[in-house]
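A.,

Following up on our hallway conversation. Structure tokens first:
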């Protein structure tokens, strides 16, 4: 944030009130449109809802509005960046394993005293949270435990919104359970799964960790991609800015460096993007299509049980989008 200029002015009560309302409006839009439906709070490993996030941060946002209005009149355009700075979260990308923690085990909504999960899956989640804290994140999102799959509406929202959630995250932490070095990428199962394609392309910042939770990008690459002000969190490097790991990613996926770093979802280059996806598999047949909606920036109803028809529906909505643009 900029330093306070020497010339300040005393804001009127009306200006303060207007500033607070504008910032709170932006705050509401971000909470209820860009944040996942549930986030995991690292401090007590408890799932929190959007409403709970709103209650926690609303007083802080009001305080920020009062501070800003004292020294900068043209502050409105900064609202979303300020909110994202305070509400940043880390997001997890991994291959599902044994005894993954589930929503009900970490939710306080259905259990007065929630059971404490145990096992390899929970240990992996804890490690992810530890890494997230290194990036200054107090909240995290993981597909294993942050989606209430008993709610069809929440599941559908998660599938439709997942690309945006990965895109908005402060950092995407990728755990490659069978890799110890970049040379292992060719046999790493993570690169063969359908959902991980958007999890690779959507995030602005991404970090890869091997099976012992050490960064797979080390040496001089650790310092690349840092933004001004990252000194507070030394683990803020971006693996997409590291040539060594970028080369390895491009070789194993067939994706160009330009797309790897600056991918934009759209219905352009359909054959090329379908070729990326053709190398990947999903457990549910329908997910072949659903996992590509974010890549092509399209949306369609979720209907598990329709089988391969989901892919044909995806092709239809892509074609319709292209016709509208032409």
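Then the amino acids I'd put at each of the 326 positions:
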């Amino acid at each position: 944030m900029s330093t306070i200029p020497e010339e300040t002015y005393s804001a009127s009560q009306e200006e303060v009130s207007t500033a607070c309302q504008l910032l709170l409006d932006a705050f509401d839009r971000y909470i209820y449109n860009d944040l996942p439906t549930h986030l995991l709070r690292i401090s007590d490993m408890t799932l929190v809802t959007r409403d709970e996030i709103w209650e926690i941060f609303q007083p802080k946002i009001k305080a920020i509005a009062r501070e800003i209005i004292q020294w900068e009149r043209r502050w409105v355009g900064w609202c979303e960046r300020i909110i994202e700075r305070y509400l940043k979260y880390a997001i997890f990308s991994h291959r599902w394993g044994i005894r993954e923690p589930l929503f009900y085990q970490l939710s306080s909504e259905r259990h007065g005293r929630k059971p404490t999960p145990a096992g390899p899956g929970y240990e992996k989640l804890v490690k992810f949270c530890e890494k997230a804290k290194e990036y200054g994140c107090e909240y995290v999102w993981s597909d294993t435990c942050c989606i209430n799959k008993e709610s069809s509406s929440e599941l559908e929202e998660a599938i439709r919104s997942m690309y945006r959630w990965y895109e908005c995250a402060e950092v995407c932490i990728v755990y490659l359970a069978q890799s110890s070095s970049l040379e292992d990428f060719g046999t790493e199962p993570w690169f063969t799964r359908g959902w991980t394609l958007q999890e690779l392309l959507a995030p602005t910042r991404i970090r890869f960790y091997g099976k012992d939770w050490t960064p797979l990008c080390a040496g001089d690459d650790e310092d690349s991609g840092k933004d001004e002000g990252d000194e507070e969190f030394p683990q803020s490097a971006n693996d997409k800015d590291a040539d060594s790991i970028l080369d390895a990613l491009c070789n194993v996926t067939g994706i160009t460096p330009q797309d790897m770093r600056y991918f934009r979802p759209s219905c352009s280059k359909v054959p090329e993007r379908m070729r990326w996806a053709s190398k990947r598999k999903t457990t549910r047949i329908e997910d072949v299509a659903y996992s590509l909606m974010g890549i092509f920036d399209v949306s369609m109803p979720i209907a598990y049980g329709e089988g391969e028809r989901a892919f044909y529906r995806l092709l239809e909505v892509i074609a319709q989008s292209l016709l509208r643009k032409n």
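Strands lie at 38-41, 46-49, 89-93, 139-141, 171-175, 206-209. Curious whether your intuition agrees with the design.

B.
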